[in-house]
């Protein structure tokens, strides 16, 4: 069993074994972010789903109103006029077949890859490379589209793609620990509403099981899911 550092032991002592009100939990998250770098604010949510069944899978996107706090490097694979459109819309890397070749040879200097539907048959051969990194374009993720300009703007502004892993747990970053508790709460509320809105049709019984937040290097803090779901965004933002 891994040895827990003294720093983490000290931080864990600050966290009580209880369900915290969302704003209280996020203030505590900031208080336990003591690493020497700016940590991410992370949510770890266990849902009442079994993703081995197709009607119990969750894969979608969330637009975080307060952004992610990260610079997102967007690459676009397209053809013809769409190449110019992507460049004009602020894509960091743009190309056609030659970009597919560069990615095959190991080019990975981007955080999000968007492709137009007409190039997807060629992009498909990148599946083994991009899939494990979560970079493979998909219609569900909003990364296969002819509306290139909107997609670039949304991902640069704080749109994230996420999915439940094979055990039914969602792991997603919802900001940075430099954000105020209020801004983190606005983002967390958007995440909760997105998960509720995209509840898989096959989900049975209690959908929300456990909901924890933490800083990247901090202890887990349990959130009162009912209190979060009952919050109105007008009370938050």
From TrEMBL:
According to its UniProt entry, the protein's GO biological process terms are: regulation of translation; translation
A GO term from the CC aspect: large ribosomal subunit
List UniProt keywords, sorted A-Z: Repressor, Ribonucleoprotein, Ribosomal protein, RNA-binding, rRNA-binding, Translation regulation, tRNA-binding
InterPro entries from the UniProt entry: Ribosom_uL1_bac-type, Ribosomal_uL1, Ribosomal_uL1-like, Ribosomal_uL1/biogenesis, Ribosomal_uL1_3-a/b-sand, Ribosomal_uL1_CS
Q: Would the keyword Endoplasmic reticulum be found if you checked this record's keyword annotation?
A: no
Q: Name one GO molecular function term.
A: rRNA binding
Known role: Binds directly to 23S rRNA. The L1 stalk is quite mobile in the ribosome, and is involved in E site tRNA release. Protein L1 is also a translational repressor protein, it controls the translation of the L11 operon by binding to its mRNA.
Subunit info here reads: Part of the 50S ribosomal subunit.
Per the record, the similarity remark reads: Belongs to the universal ribosomal protein uL1 family.
Name of the protein = Large ribosomal subunit protein uL1
Species of the source: Nostoc punctiforme (strain ATCC 29133 / PCC 73102)
């Amino acid at each position: 069993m891994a040895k827990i550092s003294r720093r983490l032991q000290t931080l864990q002592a600050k966290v009580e074994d209880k369900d915290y009100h969302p704003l209280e939990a996020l203030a505590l998250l900031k208080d336990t972010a003591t690493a020497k770098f700016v940590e991410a604010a992370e949510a770890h949510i266990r849902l009442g789903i079994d993703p081995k069944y197709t009607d119990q899978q969750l894969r979608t996107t969330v637009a975080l109103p307060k952004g992610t706090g990260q610079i997102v490097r967007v690459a676009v694979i397209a053809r013809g006029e769409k190449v110019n459109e992507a460049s004009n819309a602020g894509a960091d890397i743009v190309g056609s077949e030659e970009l597919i070749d560069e990615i095959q040879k190991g080019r990975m200097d981007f955080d999000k890859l968007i492709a137009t539907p007409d190039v997807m048959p060629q992009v498909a051969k990148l599946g083994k490379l991009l899939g494990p990194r979560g970079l493979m374009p998909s219609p569900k993720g909003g990364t296969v589209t002819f509306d290139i300009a909107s997609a670039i703007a949304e991902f640069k502004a704080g749109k994230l793609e996420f999915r439940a892993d094979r055990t039914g747990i969602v792991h997603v970053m919802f900001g940075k620990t430099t954000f105020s508790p209020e801004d983190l709460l606005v983002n967390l509320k958007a995440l909760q509403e997105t998960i509720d809105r995209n509840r898989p049709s096959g989900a049975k019984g209690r959908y929300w099981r456990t909901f924890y937040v933490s800083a990247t290097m901090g202890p887990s803090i349990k959130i009162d899911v009912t209190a979060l779901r009952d919050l109105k965004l007008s009370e938050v933002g």
